[in-house]
């Protein structure tokens, strides 16, 4: 079990710094956002499992049993209030860290989910009073001059639009916006963002969590863009984003609780035919790294203005296989430790 703890610790170190840093700096995820998203999930799951498993295996190693029998001995000793021979203060500290880390991650996830559900419920109640009754099913229109579009996932998915947005976009641009928001709802991007937001909240001192949240927040927008491009032209989507995602000197994004969206001021939004440099400068100024709402980053804008060729099938399969392998590897180490293989 001691060897398993060392292997898990080494894997945890790799997934805590060099691997996510290299992935965050890579350019290929924009060419294949779905495999990149899967890879980030694998890094998060494998990293947490490796950290907890390393402390657990190392703490139980002196019992000289498999992980499962040793855990049974530990539980029996705790319930019977008896001493455990061979477990000194250092090993007990490692076991305490494993329990605290696992509990902290689960509690943070539960607390984040509860707060988000509460905010969304309050948001829905507010929309019931503010939205126009003539809005179609699954859509709410609020009377506000600021161009605004966002989605509200959960029970009864809802897409919220402002009257200012409806006046600013033509029919084709509006179709692109609706397709973009529908992709967020259909693909349940809110759950992905919830997981990585909770991970960052639980371990804010770990740079990996910030990099992962920032990358995932951008990838979900790219996935939604790809869905919109299947029903709309690139020019229509860019024209809509110029109105919806560039805020200029308007409110900061995410002002409404529980939603996923971005507001923009008409007076400060560049025209759709403005130079790409002006759009990129405005995008950089109003992107909030790592925040779970709409943001037009330079990478996302460049991807729409000058798209690269999609990643080939073999690299996509390699990314997906790597994500699965990352989760399987610590699981195998723990299984081997469970039966005292090494």
TrEMBL record:
* InterPro entries cross-referenced by the UniProt entry: Beta-lactam_resp_regulator, Peptidase_M48
RNA-binding in keyword set: no
Q: Cofactor: bound how, per the entry note?
A: Binds 1 zinc ion per subunit.
GO molecular function per UniProt: metal ion binding; metalloendopeptidase activity
Q: Which residues form the Peptidase M48 domain?
A: 124-200
Pfam family membership, one: Peptidase_M48
List keywords of the entry alphabetically: Hydrolase, Membrane, Metal-binding, Metalloprotease, Protease, Transmembrane, Transmembrane helix, Zinc
- For this protein, the parts annotated as crossing the membrane are 39-60, 90-114, 318-339
Which protein are we looking at? M56 family peptidase
The GO annotation for biological process reads: proteolysis
Task: Report the cofactors.
Answer: Zn(2+)
Which family would the database say this protein is a member of? Belongs to the peptidase M48 family.
């Amino acid at each position: 079990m001691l060897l398993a703890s060392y292997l898990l610790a080494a894997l945890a170190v790799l997934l805590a710094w060099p691997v996510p840093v290299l992935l965050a700096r890579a350019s290929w995820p924009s060419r294949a956002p779905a495999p990149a998203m899967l890879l980030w999930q694998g890094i998060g799951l494998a990293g947490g499992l490796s950290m907890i498993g390393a402390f657990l295996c190392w703490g139980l190693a002196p019992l000289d049993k498999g992980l499962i029998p040793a855990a049974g001995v530990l539980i029996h000793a705790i319930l019977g209030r008896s001493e455990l021979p061979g477990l000194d203060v250092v090993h007990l500290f490692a076991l305490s860290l494993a329990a605290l880390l696992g509990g902290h991650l689960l509690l943070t996830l539960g607390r984040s989910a509860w707060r988000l559900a509460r905010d969304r419920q309050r948001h829905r109640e507010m929309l019931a009073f503010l939205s126009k009754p003539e809005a179609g099913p699954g859509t709410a229109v609020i009377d506000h001059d600021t161009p605004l579009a966002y989605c509200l996932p959960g029970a009864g998915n809802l897409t919220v639009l402002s009257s200012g947005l409806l006046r600013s976009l033509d029919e084709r641009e509006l179709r692109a916006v609706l397709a973009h928001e529908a992709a967020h709802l259909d693909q349940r991007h809110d759950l992905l963002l919830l997981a990585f937001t909770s991970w960052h909240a639980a371990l804010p001192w770990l740079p990996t969590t910030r990099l992962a949240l920032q990358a995932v927040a951008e990838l979900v927008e790219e996935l939604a863009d790809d869905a919109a491009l299947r029903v709309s032209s690139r020019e229509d989507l860019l024209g809509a984003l110029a109105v919806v995602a560039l805020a200029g000197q308007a409110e900061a994004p995410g002002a409404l609780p529980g939603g996923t969206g971005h507001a923009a001021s008409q007076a400060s939004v560049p025209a759709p035919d403005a130079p790409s440099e002006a759009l990129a400068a405005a995008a950089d100024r109003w992107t909030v790294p790592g925040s779970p709402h709409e943001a037009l980053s330079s990478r996302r804008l460049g991807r729409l203005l000058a798209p690269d060729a999609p990643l080939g099938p073999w690299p996509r399969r390699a990314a997906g296989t790597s994500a699965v392998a990352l989760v399987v590897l610590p699981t195998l180490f723990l299984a081997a430790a469970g039966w005292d293989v090494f």
